[in-house]
Amino acid sequence: MQAEKEKQMTHLDKKATSGIGAFFFGLYAWLAFVLSVLSGIVFALFLPGLERRRRWVSASARAAFTLTGMRVTLRGLEKLPEGHCIVVANHASYIDGVVLFGFMPPRFAFVIKGEMKNFPAVNFLLRRIGARFVERFDASGSARDARQLLRAASSGESLAIFPEGTFLRYPGLDRFRAGAFAAAIKGSLPVVPTVISGSRQVLPGGHLLPRHGHLRIDILNPIEPGDPAYENSRDLAELSRQRILEVLDEPDLLE
Which of 111, 116, 217, 227 has its CA at 20 to 30 Å from residue 96's CA atom? Predict the structure, then answer.
């Protein structure tokens, strides 16, 4: 039975990644994604309670992958601390946030780049699920947002962040910005390095249509506040990078 299932998945992979099949799969994948977003917006508008809204939008995100036949494997969920923490993950594709939000517990506030405010529907949805925005290019805005993250971490809020800030078209792990790690130190919160694999193949930078593929989320052992790296935000950032590089099948762009 399992062998037959794997055979069917292999056939779907070949069909969805070749020629005209890939084109129509890409269109269908976008349709599934848009329907999931619309579903999230409708229920986020009316559902009371932040956790309820997060749970519904999370279910909508998972539905998009189910509808397209893309399997997402989550490993290491038991490694997440029971208390508040900061999850930091590599960033390789537009779909990373959707993948992570769909499969992580609903207690996390996602930190999103400020440019997403320019898309009204997405901006509304993100605000209704408690996302926090950070400016990347405006110095005064970046300083203000960094202070907000520090306050959130100090109050014990769990955050999920892509510390590279953005992703590149070519494979590799870039430098981590120190803001997330300064917040972890300020709030005495564990940092949980997390690896997303497969998203670059599904929707690479510069491509409009998603490809069929399988994705994996690896939650790694947390770095606890007692670690010597907590003496300095840059040391903590680099330790987190190295933990991710040990699992991520991409090069270190700082070498």
Answer: 227
**Do 222 and 191 contact (CB within 8 A), yes or no?**
yes
Between CA 162 and CA 180 the distance in angstroms is 9
End-to-end distance of the chain based on CA atoms, in angstroms? 46
What does the block give as tokens for 157? 């809020």
pLDDT digits (tens, 9 = 90+) for 12-39: 444 445 578 888 899 999 999 989 888 8
CA 95/CA 84 separation, integer angstroms: 25
Res 37: pLDDT? 83
Under 8 Å between Cβ of 74 and 217: yes
Q: Are 25 and 221 in contact (CB under 8 A)?
A: no
33-69 burial: b if 16+ Cβ within 10 Å, else e: beebbebbbebbeebeeeeebbbbbbbbbbbbbeebb
Task: Let me know: does 173 contact 137? Beta carbons within 8 Å.
Answer: no
Phi and psi, residue 153, nearest 5°: -65, -40
d(CA 180, CA 132): 12
Percent of the chain residues past pLDDT 70, beyond the cut: 84
pLDDT tens profile 144-165 = 556 677 677 767 678 999 999 8
What does the alpha-carbon distance between residue 74 and residue 122 come to, in Å, rounded to a whole number? 25
Domains of the chain: residue spans and CATH: 70-245 (3.40.1130.10)
Q: Say what the alpha-carbon torsion angle 12, 15, 18, 24 is, to the nearest 10 degrees.
A: -100
Which residue, chain included where needed, has tokens 């099949």?
21
